[in-house]
Amino acid sequence: MAFNRNKTKETPEIENPEIETPEVETPEVEVAAKAKSWIIKTPVEDFTGVSRGVAFVEGVGETDNEWFAQRCIDAGYDVKEA
After folding, report:
1. 19: alpha, beta or left, given left = phi > 0 and alpha = psi -120 to 50?
2. Full-prediction pTM beyond 0.70?
3. Mean pLDDT of all residues in the chain?
C-alpha cells in the first residue's frame, strides 16, 4: 500500500470486544515543599545591581538564601517572606 500524503479518507476505528483494556492505577506522587524565598527592598530605592548573588532592580530583589535574608534584616533592609 502506498503512503498517501493527502489524507482524503478518515481511518475507521476498529472495535474488538475480545480485547480488554486493563485498569491502570495512578501512582501517588509526593509534591516537594516549596522553598522559602524572601523579597528584599534596599534603603536606596533606585539601586540596580547584584549583591551577594542576588539581583536587585530598582531597589527590589528576591532570594531563597535564609542567611542572606537575615543579614539584610540586620542591616535595616525591608525583608518579607514571598
Report:
1. beta
2. no
3. 83
